[in-house]
Automatic annotation (TrEMBL):
Residues 8-190 form the Metallo-beta-lactamase domain. Keywords: Hydrolase. Pfam families: Lactamase_B_2. InterPro entries: Metallo-B-lactamas (IPR001279), RibonucZ/Hydroxyglut_hydro (IPR036866), UPF0173 (IPR022877), UPF0173_UPF0282_UlaG_hydrolase (IPR050114). PANTHER family: UPF0173 METAL-DEPENDENT HYDROLASE MJ1163 (PTHR43546:SF3), UPF0173 METAL-DEPENDENT HYDROLASE MJ1163-RELATED (PTHR43546). This is UPF0173 metal-dependent hydrolase IC006_1945. It comes from the Archaea. GO terms for molecular function: hydrolase activity. Belongs to the UPF0173 family.
Length: 226
């Protein structure tokens, strides 16, 4: 069984085969998050799409409080974490945009994203549990290569930033859905955390439905079975 919990903003927890995977773990400074950081010290895998503070989040503290957790991000970002924060290389999964990598028995891949980052390029992350393929787009604008991501990875669920200004807005997210063609659902993320990215999530639902896909709007902290 696979479950997914949205923690607010881009922070997402996926549980599969006894493993806890955290993507972009902004926990302490996330106004939408309802849980203390200590609840996530047991994370097995931490995925970082890029190094902006609202995505790198609490990854460093999480890594330092669990000597068994692994981190996957671009090589450049991992090199920065090693040099600046002494996160040991043996606990990081060197990667860049490309094909699947086996991480603790789960297939994961980094994908292109159109955004900015101080260390390495921004990415999305694909997680293939065997039963479901989940694409977390990270922070990104709309780009045509999403068609290729859809063809290569054939996602069941996609998590798309929809707050506008720094990423896609609800309408652009619906266009992304037509490129990615998720079979089971489209989940909005990275919206309504702060005033600059406030949107009407009802617009997201309507646009995605109009394109023929299933919107899945979660409240912060909500966990669903996939």
């Amino acid at each position: 069984m696979t479950s997914l919990r949205w923690l607010g903003h881009a922070a997402t927890e996926i549980k599969v085969n006894g493993l806890r995977i955290l993507i972009d773990p902004l926990i302490k400074d996330n106004p939408l998050n309802k849980f203390p950081l200590e609840d996530f010290y047991g994370a097995d895998i931490i995925g970082i799409t890029h190094d902006h503070y609202d995505h790198l989040g609490d990854a460093i503290e999480l890594m330092k409080n669990n000597d068994k957790s692994k981190l996957i991000a671009t090589w450049d970002l991992e090199n920065f974490l090693n040099n600046q924060y002494k996160i040991p290389w043996e606990r990081m999964i060197p990667a860049n945009v490309g094909g699947y990598i086996d991480v603790e028995g789960i297939k994961m891949a980094l994908t292109k994203a159109v955004h900015s980052s101080e260390h390495g390029d921004p990415t999305g992350i694909v997680i293939n549990t065997g039963d479901n393929v989940i694409y977390h787009a990270g922070d990104t604008g709309l780009f045509e290569d999403m068609k290729l991501i859809g063809e290569l990875f054939s996602p069941d669920y996609v998590l798309l930033p929809s707050g506008g200004r720094f990423t896609m807005d609800p309408f652009q997210s619906s266009i992304a859905s037509t490129m990615l063609k998720p079979r089971k659902g489209v989940i909005p993320i990275h919206y309504n955390t702060w005033d600059l990215i406030n949107v009407n999530v009802g617009d997201f639902e309507n646009y995605v439905k109009e394109k023929g896909f299933k919107p899945l709007v979660l409240y912060p902290g909500q966990e669903i079975e996939l």
